[in-house]
Design goal:
By secondary structure, this protein is α/β, with parallel strands linked by helices. The chain is built from twelve helices and 24 strands. The strands form seven sheets. Strands 7-6-5-2-1-8-20 form a seven-stranded mixed sheet, covered by helices on one side. It has a five-stranded parallel sheet with strand order 10-17-11-12-13. The protein has a three-stranded antiparallel sheet with strand order 14-15-16. The termini are far apart. The relative contact order is 0.15.
Length: about 425
């Protein structure tokens, strides 16, 4: 009993002296704060998590998302969990806080973070700060986009899109719906002719012709329509023109209508308004028109480019701010602007993780790995340094490349099973 009483008193004294969790930096261990959970942040963490550093990750998302396969999850080709990796680590030196960074005091070397529900705010000090928060979807301040369009940038976006697609087909199969209303519900508009927009349109076409038309016999097949809208003269402007020409033929055969040099002026609840004044009824609008700086980046008082990206040097150090680094879509190397691609953020993350372990690192050099896009009907376009192709073989290579790029062994096993399941049994058409 005396030993038990002594133990309880000791625990009480411990709780009294440790009621408040301290986030102040240790005098011995270097304190590194990492903002973000995207491509750049994830690969920085993979390089540094086993080092003698106290690493704190702050992000409103507790997982890394393998974005190239995100369109596949929106139609049920792959399960949502097969394309994510946890940002939390089993390493004791790695801490994660599900919060948003709201400000940085560069003189005090500390950040302010707020919980998602805005219930609490806390401060974390750092020796080194890595800003890798990515970018937000660019709406170009077009009215109605935020309220009525679907984005395809996060996992919850893909889930909402999938639910809405099924809901539209369910509604269109009801006898109480008029022909005009069915036509509107079955018109899917994709705004943005970049890789994400093209791949989603292709996946949606596969979903309809491969599965939906079998399970919804009461839906008029001739009323289903997918429209891909692009403001410039051509979709996939960064791809080889011959490849785009071949792709356009395949896309047209799949029933995808491509409208180039078309600008959306407004997105309404049941239609879109174009710059020429015409209004097109539709049941769903997916918005994929590039990215813009996040509000957090805009609010930082540090040197930025005209397009709002943080200016860094060839070592990814923020100009004029010691101990602070930035990379990925929210940063730009002075005099060497790079494309906003996952492979850029991927390489920068790996580089910075290794560079921070060196006394004299070499400057960052980007190695272009080529471009890939899936356009539906088991056909892909590969625009690589030493190979250009379009078709079924390129589709096999496309899948192989992404399977190799997925991080964990668990997902490397689950993704092929997901592909095989979709081929053998079809995609799931239930809504939950």
């Amino acid at each position: 009993l005396q030993m038990l009483r002594h133990t309880l008193n000791k625990q009480k004294r411990y709780l009294r002296t440790n009621r408040h969790f301290s986030l102040k930096k240790s005098d011995k261990t270097e304190k590194l704060v990492l903002l973000g959970s995207g491509w750049a942040a994830f690969h920085v963490l993979q390089q540094l998590k086993n080092t003698n550093r106290d690493i704190t990750i702050v992000s409103p998302r507790n997982h890394f998302l393998f974005t190239p396969l995100l369109p596949s999850t929106s139609v049920g080709t792959l399960d949502f969990r097969t394309i994510i990796e946890p940002m939390r680590s089993k390493e004791k030196n790695v801490h994660f806080f599900l919060s948003k960074c709201t400000g940085v005091n560069f003189e005090k070397k500390s950040i302010t973070a707020r919980e998602e529900d805005d219930k609490g705010e806390f401060e974390i000090s750092y020796d080194k700060l890595i800003i890798a928060v990515g970018a937000a979807s660019n709406t170009f301040n077009i009215p109605g986009v935020v309220e009525n369009a679907f984005f395809l940038k996060e996992l919850n976006h893909a889930r909402l899109i999938r639910q809405h697609i099924i809901k539209n087909f369910e509604r269109a199969s009801l006898p109480s719906r008029s022909t005009r209303e069915k036509r509107r519900l079955l018109h899917f508009v994709v705004v943005g002719g970049g890789p994400t927009g093209v791949e989603f349109a292709g996946e949606l076409s596969d979903f309809f012709w491969g599965d939906v038309n079998k399970y919804f016999p009461d839906v008029p097949v001739n009323e289903v329509k997918i429209t891909l809208i692009e403001a410039s003269k051509s979709i996939l402007g960064s791809f080889d023109k011959d490849l785009v020409s071949k792709m356009m033929k395949n896309i047209t055969k799949q029933g995808i209508y491509v409208r180039t040099e078309t600008v959306v002026k407004e997105v309404k609840e049941e239609s879109i308004v174009l710059s020429d004044g015409s209004e097109i009824p539709c049941g769903m609008v997916v918005w994929s028109t590039g990215v813009a700086p996040r509000k957090f980046i805009n609010d930082l008082d540090i040197p930025k480019t005209k397009n709002g990206r943080i200016i860094v040097d060839e070592f990814l150090r923020v100009k004029g701010v010691p101990g602070v680094y930035s990379l990925g879509d929210c940063a730009e190397i002075a005099g060497n602007p790079l494309p906003l691609l996952a492979q850029v953020a991927n390489q920068q993350g790996k580089y910075l993780g290794k560079a921070l372990k060196m006394e004299k690192p070499k400057p960052f050099q980007f190695k272009f790995m080529g471009l890939m896009v899936y356009s539906g009907n088991h056909k892909s376009a590969l625009d690589l340094n030493n190979f250009k192709g379009y078709g079924f073989t390129s589709w096999i290579l496309w899948r192989s490349a992404y399977l190799n790029g997925i991080g964990s062994l668990r997902n490397k096993m689950q993704v092929p099973f997901g592909w095989l399941r979709a081929i053998l049994f079809g995609r799931d058409v239930t809504s939950f």
